[in-house]
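Troubleshooting: if your tokenizer reports a length mismatch, compare your output against this known-good record of 152 residues.
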Amino acid sequence: MQCCTTGTKRWEGILPLLGILVYIPLVYSALLTKLYRGVAAMSNSANQCQWLIAGLPCGQHFTTFDNLIAHLGREHDVQGPAGRKLVCQWGTYRGSCGNQYRRDAYRRHVATHLNHSFSCTVKDCNKSYSRADTLRSHMKKTHTSGLPPPDC
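Known-good structure output:
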């Protein structure tokens, strides 16, 4: 590429370098923005009711998981006898969850929507579950030698 005033090629080696110096900060900025939005979305959704009412999420925020569970019972009729069958109306990316479960299991089911995680503590296992009872089952089936003997 020739310079329009002098006819030299002095800018030919510098232009690609200038392009990289402009490109890298733009990519870095975009990645930081995406990361920030992801973290903000995660922090905003903790203990937020996503139960669908006429196709829209309730959206109410709670300071604790227990308060959210109490809200579901009061406001969204997730209550009744332990054996009562319920259909989950928790909002997901594809609409309502739609899973059926007994009323006595709804607390455990809602925890799966909130991405509560229970990780295996055995070295190099790296398994993680959304339910504590599933982790306990994994420990009994997979890591029996690492468990203390049962009390007699």
